[in-house]
Hints:
The chain is of the alpha+beta class.
Amino acid sequence: MGALPAEDRTGKQHFALNFREIVYGSDEYGHQCLLREQVLRAPLNLSLRDEDLSGEQDQIHFGLFQPGGGLLACVVVDQIHPTEAKLRQIAVAPDHQRAGLGRKLMEEVERMLYSRGCTRLTLHSRATATGFYQKLGWSMTGGEFEEVGIPHFKMEKTLGPIF
Length: 163
């Protein structure tokens, strides 16, 4: 896990990103929780603090960081089987959305999980984000359902040696 080139909204490379695992309970984990709260819960008038996060110590946390160390994007991975994982709580900082960071985060987490033996991924996508995941090779596997008060779809992706 090292520095990755990043592009701004004009497509110009402007800084190198660092993709790495976030240690549960660390300061970086605290920043991850704040980002998830800001992006995923506050717009729905919900709070991450109201959710049971006790299982997160057994999950894998990843982040995409700018050179100065600031967290730009994150994902939580629930490894449900040695070859299968569920991605959850995927968030990109508001000031950096639509700049390719979500794509970079997904590519890196898929590459990392594949290197650890994972070949099947699932996630619950907000209905508004399914197009993003489909462009990255994800497929819908069921009908619409409600989660945190908004429409979602279950999606999956099979990983192979192209990573």
